[in-house]
Amino acid sequence: MLCFYCQEREGVTNDHIIPKRLYGTDTPSTVIRPIAPCCLECNGELQRSEKVLFDRLLMAVDTNDTDHNGINDRALRNFGFRLKTRDMSLRERKAREQNLKKLMQWVIPYDEKRNIFPNMGSKPGDYPKYMLKFPDEELKVFMRKFLKGMEHYLDNGRYIGSEAKLGMFSGVEDVIAAELKSQGFEDRAKAYEYGPWIKVWRLVEPEGHSLYKLSLFKTKPFIVYGFVLITDQPVPKPYIDISE
Ligand SMILES: [Zn+2]
How far is the CA of 88 from the centre of ligand 1 (A)? Predict the structure, then answer.
């Protein structure tokens, strides 16, 4: 089978469409983890990009929330927090120091006017002085892969090539949510649960395009919408074009 992503090389590995690091330590092994055939090159590149995105996203998860057992710990450990450094090799310690240095480069002064992708950034009363820069590019890469991957997984191995237009919604989440609600998105869409805090909605329109909603985390969920468009059907604006 060809790689679901590049569709050029042989899919010799499986890509976890929802990254493994997003599942908690308490997630039962019976929970479905969607996969798609992926070549080594794409798998490596996607993983690198997802590490950048989700390390930051996981840092934004409430560490006091036991519903998220395991996932924030993973991010914290990556930066050397909550670890006994004396048990680490010099190499491991150096790697974590590097990760922490990188993390500090993402910390920026709090600016309430700064436009942050849906649900991200400081919220009143949270961390009034600092926030983490959000990696837009990596989110685009992940969403492109998520849309191609989910279509492949849910639609009998369907390949999404360059004939399709892929997009994700930007702007204030509430505006997009209201627009889609008026169109009855969640009533008409099919919902899939991949663990206690990972939910996917997919709506297939008769014209052949698919609309997705991805919700991560239980409290303060991170929500992102995307679509796969084959025809010239109109979609709610504004959106970011993430076609290749
Ligand atoms: Zn590939």
Answer: 35
Cis peptide upstream of residue 238 (ω within 30 degrees of 0) = yes
- The token pair at 68 is 């998220």
Is 167:147 a contact under the CB 8 Å cutoff? no
Q: Which amino acid is at 211?
A: L
| Sequential DSSP letters for 107-121 | EEE--TTS--STT-S
| Angle formed at CA 218 by CA 215 and CA 219, multiple of 5 degrees | 115
Instruction: State the residue for tokens 């924030």.
Output: 72
Q: What is the pTM of this model?
A: 0.86
Distance 163 CA to ligand 1 centre (A): 17
Q: How would you label 20-51 residue by residue, b for 16+ Cβ within 10 Å and e otherwise? A: ebbbbeebeeeeebbbbbbbeebbeebeebbe
pLDDT at 19: 92
Strand pairing category for 107-109 and 222-229: unpaired
pLDDT digits (tens, 9 = 90+) for 32-48: 999 999 999 999 999 99
Q: What φ, ψ does residue 76 adopt, rounded to 5°?
A: -65, -40
Distance from the alpha carbon of residue 40 to the mean position of ligand 1, in angstroms = 7
- Top pLDDT among 133 and 172 is at 133
Residue 29 to residue 227: CA distance in whole angstroms: 29
